[in-house]
Amino acid sequence: MSGSVYSASLSAALNEYWQTLERRWTRDAGQTLRGGTSRIDGAPSPARWPVPPESRGHLTTCPIVAWAVNDGTQATRPAADACDGWSVPDAKYVECRAHDVFSQVGDWAWTKREQLATAIPDLAGGPELSSLEDARAILVKADETMRPEGSVDAYTLPGLVDKLSIRDDGNNNRAWMAGWTGLAANSLKGGFLSTVGPTLKNQSVLVRWLANCYSLRATTIHAARNNNLHLIAQATRELFEAAAPSADTPKERVAVNAASQAWGITTTVLKALGHEAPGSIGTALTLLDFALNIREAKPNEGLRFPQLSAFFAHLDSAVRTLHGDLDEAEADYQKAITAIEQRIAGVDRTVLELYDFTQSSPDGDDTDPAASSRYAVDVVVVLEIAQHCYEVAQHYSGLLSKVATASYADGQLVGRGVVPTAADTALIALRNDVESFFQKSTARYLMAADRIKKAAEKYAESDAEQKARLQAAIADWREAKVGEYGNRENIDLDPRKEGAQN
């Protein structure tokens, strides 16, 4: 539900409440005047016309009072001169200002409308929930490209990462791994390539968590807006609602904390990075249809609230409950953000943004034996590893762009009064952190590709056959527009720059 749609719905609901309240209050005032007094129940101020004793008889037959008691709709409201003050019981003219009293009742009803509009949670004017749901959809799409479904396609991001990953399940026994030595091979094999799998998995969890948080914010606001409309519609019905024949049963209400229940926040807190991410909420709650069908007027003793003063007290309590429900939902939203912050803080950065090459020498260390003919190093295989790194970097560049695109919804992360809560601000910071993880991962895959390519070139320096094979492989890159001649050109580390990959 957009902010404009909600504002229009809210205005319509408040106007219906105001008009129905004026009708009910007008009828009550008519009954009170007919009883010879102007002490009208629920009135926020004294009536402008205290009924004088000589006018009491007249009010039992006054046509304006009769309209108020039997009709009360503004469309049929009589003019002030519809009553000339003739008192049938007394057979004389007396003072009659009933018309003025009913005008004052209309003012009271409007004041109550404005009080209710101010009392309910202020959720008009924003946020645009479609933007939040778009951000969620973008993040879910990014997450899906990071997760292997069934068999791993060799050209998907999970497939490429699986090729590069060094694990304890036999994947590290490949021939190229055994033969590739020196030239920082240890820092690549024991450092970088051992972090590519865990990093992809953890980043996928983070992206799904972010998606859920955007959806949780949207669902919370949507449900709270629905609750506002529901409360006003229910209050409008209750003005003429008949008393229940037995103990009154609380009416079904859209609970704003249904959002947190749907997400399972208590379960989320127990999740760790690398474990299964919580399922997404999906599209927020459907807007309630609120029927404002007014019952036929009945004597007050048959109404659920025969006294408007009791009705107003009931409504005040309902509004306080509305705020309490929203407070609980906002607290759950904060818990979700805090849970993610804590999990990120407890995880090694190398499995959030990849191994940092700046921590090791580009030339390897003392444990790296020099390149030697004792090892059957195939430069074509080494170049293939570099190509995979370039390809993964291109995939990551696309993911980086998607995560950055979600930032367009950051302005819609607000609570009451279109003011960001502490959780909203923290969510924006988290999204920026995740964007930074993807940016660093992209850059580090590029650095790895460049280093591995240089390693292949180094091996080929002292071996004519390897040099020929290297040159042929590079020619294939150039023709196929892959590696540094294709994938690298499609990568941009600044996702907000014009022309960046989307």
Tell me the layout of helices and strands.
Blueprint: H1 3-34, H2 56-59, H3 63-70, E1 86-87, E2 92-93, H4 98-119, H5 129-146, H6 157-164, H7 175-179, H8 185-238, H9 258-263, H10 265-268, H11 308-345, H12 350-353, H13 379-405, H14 422-460, H15 464-480
Antiparallel strand pairs: 1-2
Report a brief summary of the structure.
With 502 residues, the chain is mainly alpha-helical. It has 15 helices and 2 strands.
Distance between the termini: 27 Å
Structural class: mainly alpha
Kindly estimate the percentage of residues that lie in beta strands according to DSSP. Answer: under 5%
Mean pLDDT: 80
Morphology: rod-shaped
Q: What is the H-and-E element order? A: HHHEEHHHHHHHHHHHH
Major β-sheet profile: 2 strands, antiparallel
Low-confidence stretches: 247-298, 362-375
Provide keyphrases for this structure.
502 residues, mainly alpha, two-stranded antiparallel sheet, 57% helix
Description:
This protein is mostly helical. Helix content is 57%, strand content 1%. Helix 1 packs antiparallel against helix 4, helix 1 (3-34) runs parallel beside helix 8 and helix 5 packs antiparallel against helix 8 (185-238).
